[in-house]
């Protein structure tokens, strides 16, 4: 699991806010099945949540200690503008063919001629599935501090 984050401290209000990111590889049982890929993306995203919270807690402790505060309980958790679990599109779970759609028909060029001088002579439609390499979750956690 890979994680990255950015800091935020609000000492005057008695809170500390930190962001953590968890990342998990997507490993579908069947790389040619949309439902298998979608289930694997969801499972990887769920697995990433614990890492994101742990990293946010670690950073919050460092920020609180840096300004002389003691970290308290969690006040709120939000998914800080999550790019989501997909690698296409603006939101979570977007595949190259739409929300939760990782398999579909694409157009491929037909090339003919000798190597180095090939030309595109037409196109064909082929069924392809694209598996995202990982799913990630970015969470912002606000803690009480005193």
The domain tally reads 1
CATH architectural label: 2-Layer Sandwich
What is the N-to-C succession of helices and strands?
EEHEEEEEE
Sheet with most strands: strand arrangement: 1-2-8-3
- Number of H- or I-type helical stretches: 1
Summarize the structure.
The protein contains 1 helix and 8 strands, in the order E-E-H-E-E-E-E-E-E. The protein is of the alpha+beta class and 146 residues long.
Q: Layout of helices and strands, plus pairs?
A:
Elements: E1 7-10, E2 15-25, H1 34-66, E3 71-78, E4 94-95, E5 98-99, E6 103-112, E7 119-129, E8 134-145
What does this 3D model show about the protein?
By secondary structure, the protein is an alpha+beta fold. It has a single domain (7-103, 131-145), classed as Translation Initiation Factor IF3 (2-Layer Sandwich). It is 23% helix and 41% strand. The chain has 1 helix and 8 strands. The protein has one helix at 34-66, and strands spanning 7-10, 15-25, 71-78, 94-95, 98-99, 103-112, 119-129, 134-145. It has a 4-stranded antiparallel sheet. The chain has a two-stranded antiparallel sheet with strand order 4-5. A two-stranded antiparallel ribbon has the order 6-7. Residues 84-91 have low confidence and may be disordered.
């Amino acid at each position: 699991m890979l994680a990255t984050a950015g800091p935020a401290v609000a000492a005057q209000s008695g809170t500390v806010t930190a962001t953590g990111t968890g990342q998990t590889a997507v490993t579908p049982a069947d790389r040619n099945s949309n439902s298998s890929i979608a289930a694997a993306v969801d499972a990887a995203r769920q697995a990433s949540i614990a890492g994101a919270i742990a990293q946010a807690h670690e950073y919050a402790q460092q920020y609180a200690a840096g300004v002389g505060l003691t970290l308290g309980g969690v006040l709120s958790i939000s998914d800080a503008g999550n790019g989501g679990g997909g690698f296409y599109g603006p939101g979570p779970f977007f595949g190259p063919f739409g929300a939760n759609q990782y398999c579909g028909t694409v157009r491929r060029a037909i090339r003919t001629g000798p190597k180095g001088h090939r030309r595109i002579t037409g196109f064909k439609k082929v069924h392809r599935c694209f598996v995202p390499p990982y799913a990630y979750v970015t969470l912002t956690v606000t803690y009480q501090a005193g």
